[in-house]
Description:
Layout: E1 2-13, E2 16-27, E3 31-35, H1 42-49, E4 57-62, E5 65-66, H2 72-78, E6 80-82, H3 95-108, H4 112-115, H5 119-138, H6 154-167, E7 172-176, H7 184-199, E8 203-207, H8 211-217, E9 220-225, E10 228-233, H9 235-239, H10 242-249
Parallel strand pairs: 3-8, 3-9, 6-7, 7-8
Antiparallel strand pairs: 1-2, 1-4, 4-5, 9-10
The chain binds adenosine-5'-triphosphate and magnesium ion.
The site of adenosine-5'-triphosphate has 11 residues, from strand 2 and helix 1.
Amino acid sequence: MSILEVRQLTKRFGGLAAVNEVSFNVEAGEILSIIGPNGAGKSTLFKLISSFLRATSGEVIYEGENIVSKAPHIVARKGVVRTFQETTIFKEMTALDNVVIAHHLRSRASLAGFYWASRTAKEDEAQFRESAEEILNYLGIGHVGNEIARNLPHGYLRALGMAIGLAAQPKLLLFDEPFAGMNHEETQQAVKQVYGIRDRGLTVLLVEHDMPAVMKISDRIVVLNFGQKIAEGTPTEIQDNEQVIEAYLGREDEEIGL
Ligand SMILES: Nc1ncnc2c1ncn2[C@@H]1O[C@H](COP(=O)(O)OP(=O)(O)OP(=O)(O)O)[C@@H](O)[C@H]1O
Ligand SMILES: [Mg+2]
């Protein structure tokens, strides 16, 4: 079953069609990567799906419902969550507290003023702490739960970003360049974490430039170039696709690793 159907989705910035009539489906439980040269429209596409940007036209059907241009917090509550970048991690708090807070924000954000001092808050706290510990353990970073986030190495901060995303109990997770700036070992670890997330029953959409990682991790790949979809298929199909090779060769020879 398709969890997400992107239909003729378009975003124009003035005269530029950053995303141009893009259509594709995402099946429940798959890892689908969006690739393409710099400026191809990948991040814009993610912002449209997670509703951080209003589409110019087109539809985003999530679990049968058109969610295009709905408020981002409503889309997030329905289960479509873009991962937080490092900058939204509270650097002076522990890793564990960051994930606990993320649970609170999901749970009662609209009632925040009444909520923090209430009895429900205290009851939730224990439950959220347990869930946060479970998420950190699941991602293999439980042992740094009590470290202040600021002191964590890069790879751990990325994993913490994933943990914060998971606290929102998403069904569809969108990761924009999760492996950027990682060394080989960190990438291997992060790939395992993404597999782990999928094994929890989540669907994963990924934008990434690290081609070896993309080819390894993806069930399917969608390729954008100048805002348009130029190819869609399995990693093997994409590696052999003439248009894809041309799109990359036209820009940076090395990027796709051919
Ligand atoms: N807010 C904006 N206003 C105007 N133009 C924008 C805006 N955001 C993106 N663009 C333009 O839209 C195009 C697509 O940008 P986008 O960030 O989606 O590309 P990308 O595929 O994510 O690139 P990269 O691989 O470099 O991250 C680019 O030409 C970019 O300059
Ligand atoms: Mg981008």
